[in-house]
Design a protein that fits this description.
Helix content is 57%, strand content 6%. By secondary structure, the protein is mostly helical.
Amino acid sequence: MQTIYITGNDLTIEDIVKVSRENYKIEITPEAIDNVRKARELVDKFVDEEKIVYGITTGFGKFSDVTISKEETKTLQRNLIISHACGVGKHFSEDIVRAMMLLRINALSKGNSGVRLQTLNTLVEMLNKGVHPIVPEKGSLGASGDLAPLSHMVLVMLGEGEAIYKGERLSGKAALDKAGISTIDLTSKEGLALINGTQVMTAVGALTVYDAMNLLKIADISAALTMEALNGIVTAFDEKVHKVRSHKGQINTAKNMLRLLEGSNMTTNQGQIRVQDAYALRCIPQIHGASKDAIEYVKEKINIEINSATDNPLIFPEQEEVISGGNFHGQPMALSFDFLGIALAELANVSERRLERLVNPALGGLPAFLTKNGGINSGFMIVQYSAASLVSENKVLAHPASVDSIPSSANQEDHVSMGTIAARKAREILENVRSVIAMEILGACQGIDLAGNKGLGVGTKIAYDIVRKHTHTIEDDIVMYTEINKCEEIVKSNILVEEIEKVIGKLD
């Protein structure tokens, strides 16, 4: 059994993928268990002393000035969850739900939240046994944490709500019963500790960044195939050009392009056919590289967030302090995920421009719309339309969510991040980008065939052969969406990157 050990301090994006998509088990380390117990002891002490502490012996938000008696704390915590479960829309995929559960477990394991070990273990057990709460995508402002979606997660722990267990949609109670997990009764601080955090937006963003890092490599592969179909000039990728600017992503992209195209008989040098290429070819390192640098920045921010305590108030057992702060505010993630969406959108922008050069005989010199018998055949005409549609949709989606705010809780919570919206938009943009790049790859392979394949580069030949194993040169019009779907499945599987890296080493 493959296991990830949870400390609260050293979870990685790769760990998240292993747990959320590969069903690794998790186990909380003894040190983290000790930290959780110490924090809980302090909460119990304050409750016994009837000390006035936000979220422990008071109401929430605007009700923070309402004192709650010791006898009412269990009712308060249950009411918090059932009243806050106000999510709407379609529900998150199981991998995202598993990621948010893992991130909440990791945050609680830091020992600054004050939950009982029993409560934390229930969530661990749900994750390990595959009880996946139904969590609607919409309803979070991203600034008292992801209150609404996380409440849907916690409902199942109480035997309420709904969950997927072994492919079956069940009531929360039925799912727990089938998995052999007991329901819990929340006590002081626990409900707030479970839902007051950024784990939903961060789960969506972390998985999107992981997928984006793979897609960046495929974007380079796609661009390299188009370079060959259009006899692109590789001189522009000379490392001397990029070292005098020194952006890491740019340098790495130029290096990738030369490695992918090494040995190609389809590319040209400066002045051989023409002096220079259009920007969509010549500036591949600058454009792709900028997105790589942006996504690397987002990754750094996610690595901080996934190992942070983001609820309120925070418990500091060593100092016997409980401090009410604002770590639940999603602004660091909101800005990052808006940046992520913009960086991804640019990959599709330039990919579609390369596709246009492939289908437009005035620009690329290939047969119009990549078909030999134009007129009776439309070829790739509407493939470019579809790509253009997705690119324009991405421009709408890339509008920043974080520039918006709306007051809530009677203006007590008067600035919110909209970080969960930013993360969801970035995810949607990524899916559109994947489709556009699949269309470019399909078009580039068709262009190579029409240009006469004189011998491809060491990396691009591998990519071309994989694509042609599942598709073929299109002579006369066929149902195109099936070909696009085949190519998109190749992109999603990441087989292009895996097989190329076996031969030429890791792409940057």
